[in-house]
Structures are given as C-alpha cells and as structure tokens.
Amino acid sequence: MKRWKAPSRSAGTGTGWRTRVLLACFALSALVLAGKLFFLQVLDHAFYEALASGQHSLFKELFPERGDILIHDAKEDRLVALATNEQLALVYADPRQMHRTKPSVDPTETAKTLGEILGLDEAKTTDLAVRLSRPEDPYEPVASRIPEETLKKIIDAKLSGIGYVRESVRIYPEQDMGGHVTGFVGADTEGRQAGRYGIEGRFDEALTGVPGFLRSERDIAGRIIAVGDRAFEPAVDGADVVLTIDRTVQYMACSKLQRSVAKHGADGGSLVVLEVATGRVLAMCGSPDFDPNAYGDVTGVNTFNNPAIFQAYEPGSVFKPVTMAAALDTGSVIPDTTFEDTGSVMVDGWYKPIANAEGKSYGVVSMTRVLEDSINTGMVFAMRQMGMDPFTSYVKQFGFGAKTGIELDTEMPGDVSPLDIGGEVYAATASFGQGITVTPLQLASAYAAIANGGVLLEPHVVDEVRYTDGRIDKTSVKEQRRIMQEKTSHLLGAMLISVVENGHGTCAGVPGYYVGGKTGTAQVPTKEGYDENVTIGSFAGFAPANDPRFVIMARVDNPKDVKWAESTAAPLFGDMMDFLLRYYEVPPTRPMDEQVVQRFHKRCY
Questions:
Q1: Number of domains in the chain
Q2: pLDDT in tens, 7-27
Q3: Domain span at 149
Q4: 32, 445, 505, 541 - which has most CB atoms within 10 Å?
Q5: What is the pLDDT of residues 348-374, one digit of tens each?
C-alpha cells in the first residue's frame, strides 16, 4: 500500500504564503522601529539631550536667565551692566553624613573651619556648630552668594558632609549709582522671586523671559517611558533693557546730591538731569538711597520709592515760571508789564491777605522783576490778567496732575485738583506754587518744554529693549504737544536768565555760560497750616540758555543749616550743570574772568 503525499505544488504554495506574512511582519516592525528611532533621534532630540545632560544643564534649559539692565558710558562708547547675573554658590551641610562617617566628624571643628573661611563672627560660628550637631538633620544651609575664590577654599578643605550647588544670583556691580532706578529682585507677595520697583519692577516680565517645560509619561517606578508621550520646550532668556542713563553723569549726580544732603543735614532730596531735545533721562537720583545688593537691610519700605517720581510736594516759587509762561503766551502780560506791589493782596475765598515772603513790599515792578525777586503778589496779578480758566488749562497742558509716562514703577501724578474747584483763592495760591503738588520729574519736564521752544516731550529712561530672538524695541522721541509759542519760550528764557544773573538764583550760575532757572523755597503743609520751621528747597533750570542742551531739577528736603533754596538747591544745580557742560565739552558762550570765577565758587560752595 502506497503512502499518500501532498502535491509538491501545494506544499510550496503554503510555505511561501507563511514566509511572506512573516517577512511582512518583520518589515512592518522594522519600519515602526525606524520611525520611532527617527522621532527619538531627530524630532525629540532636544528632549532626550536635555534629559541626558544632567540636572544642572536641564535646569538651564528649563529656567531662563534674567536679562541685564545696561547703561551708557559715553566717553568709552560702551554699555555697562547696572544689573546682571553671577554664578555664585550655595554651601550646605548634611549633618547625617557627618555623623555616619567612621570616625564621625566633629561638628565644632567643621564649623570653626567654615567660620574662618567665610569670615563668620564667634556667635555665628557657634550657631553653625549647634546646627551641624543634629545627627538626623538632612540639610542645613551654611552660606549663600559665595564667590568662586571662597568656594575653592571650602572645596580644598575637604570637609565631610559639606556640599554646594551653583545658583544664578542677581547682582548690581556699580556702587553708589542710585537703587531707585534699577529697583531690585526680591520675593513678591506669594514668595516668588520677582522684580520690585524701578526698572526691575516695571520690566519684570521682559527681563524674566519665558520658562521652558518638560513633560513625559512615567512608569509606576517613576521612570520615563521611552515610547510614551512627552514634550520639551526650552526656556527663552529674558530681554536686556538699555537705559538712557549715562554712567558718569549718574555717578556724579548721585554723589553731588548725597554730599549736598549731608552738608545741610537735610532729610533727603532728588536730582534729575534731562536732555532738552530728546527727553532722555541722563541721570536720576534720590536720597535717602539704598543698595539693591542689600535691599533687605532697608528698615523703611518708603525708601524704595523714587523721590523724583513718587514724592509729590508743594513746589513753591519754582512753579512761578509756569504761571508766567501762561500769562505771556495768552498776551496778558509782557516782560515789561508793571504792577504796583503793596506787599499783600486780598483774594476771593480767603479771609486774610496773601503776602510776599518775609513781608516785603517792592512798589512798582515789571514782570521780569517779579521773577527775579520771586514776588507772590506779582504772580497773583499775572494770573488775574489772563483769568483762572486759561491758567488752569496751561497748568494741565504742562502735564501737572498726570503721570509723565516714565518707564519706572511707583510714579505719582501729583495733585492740581484744587484748580477745578473754581475759587480764586485756589488759582491765586497755585500761581506761586502753593495748594497743589507736583513731582521733581514733572518740573524738569516742564522746564525742558520752556527750553525746547514750547514743545513738551515725554521723558524716557529706557533707550531700547533687546530680545534674544534679535528684535529690538527702540524708544523714539515722543512729542506730546506744543504748550506755548516759540516766541513765548524765548521771552521767558531771557527772563529766567535774568533771575540767575540778578535775582535769587545767582549760585546756580556757571561761569562762561548763560543759565536760566528759578529757585523755590516751599513750606510744608500741616493740618494747622504751614510748618514755619520746615522747608523744601528747589531749583530748576537749563543751560546754555542761548541753545539749551540740559535741564536739571534739584531738590533738598528740610535743610537744617539754612532756610532758602538759593543756598541749598541752587548751588547743587550749579555744581552739577558745571560738570555737565564740561563733560559734554559744550563751548563757553561768554568770557570768563578767573577772579570772578574764584569769588563765585567761594560765595556759593
């Protein structure tokens, strides 16, 4: 009997079918694997590269670097960091490791070694020894913001249980440059690090950048699943903010302000320097000041507020040129217009006469003389000649009662709302700077408009913002409006030159140049009236008066040795303007007699 055999053709056909299916499966698997490798090695390369690079590199990928705040150094034609970041170290201890070491480490000796390296006093060294003596304590901070050279000494000491991590720390390398402009980086209301005050606060979002993120599926043990869903977006570093501030001008302004405040035993003060043609802030300083590197040492939070933009005050006579500008521009008076001063004047809405300072009476005087001798009754006369409504309109056109728009946190608008009440007493007192409040920056901006042919520019302290993608936001000169005719600005400018030459502002003069400006000695209001023993001295002006380049507003708060602004704010203005004109090499516009110069400096400084 023959054994049955399957046809050879049928056998070959079956085997080939299975083989082809198997090969197809292999091919499909290979395609899937190749595709996965493509995604892993090409499309998701950044994700796994960051993951494999270690914790430090991954931190840098996910957390952006804060941008720098830069200022100009005009003489060296370069930018200098006013605020930047530095890689410092946080040194910590693991007391558990110290006590588990065989033989165990003596915490007192370790603390003593660290204390010598870090310069700790005996009390702090003892406290550190106590904290290192806790055998179950996993972590104790030792010191932060440790520079590289100090860290190297700690590493070389080879102390068991002592470790460190690098940390990016915000630093302010320029000393005595005015913390009010930069602000600082500190904890916000929720405990997160954020910019506070100044540029750090105003531009916190741009400076901070955009954090990255890393998201992946993990298994039950917490390990990343290679084939799971994941996403990786690297951080975008913060933008750099370039200021209009000049390094040398800022340093000199802050130094001169501090010296003036100390000389007169004053409570504080402020100094603002503007470029007339552009509105650029070349310097802005306040006193009392603070060091952004040690902002935690400040005892009163009000110290963080920039007095040039935050501390609105009744300006006194430094406001009189605003009133005169309005009267001249409306054609209500001319420089030679006269009136008879009897020493006081009655106004509607008040029960007693408004008098001149020190009860003086000047007789028949011109409007130029009114500014020279700072005659209150003359300003009331000028206000009445034009009327209350036009006067109020001009005050607001100058920008008083509104923020200037400066790119800094905590700016205040001042208060001119009493002028809206409508009573003559409010307009009369405002005409010579009482009953309304303004900021030093507003006054500087107003005087810049007088010097700039009657055009008000928006002051700005930011030159440009530079983003990491190459974009640059450049600040342009912003013309807000024309306040007065150009003819008016020239007339008023000549009158203000006469104030410096012949009036109360002689110590604001600069030998070799014509300077225009006005003093103001303001009393400080109280609930009962005005404090006779407290004054605020101001001087605002511009130079060279024939072709104005710079405006300076100087303010000295409550000087103890002298009362009048001509002895406090005026010399501060003159000293700073003298430096500015020499620093920018502005040619003199009048002859200088050396003996006259020496007598001038002896009298005023």
A1: 2
A2: 544 444 556 666 776 666 666
A3: 86-173
A4: 541
A5: 988 889 999 888 999 999 999 999 999
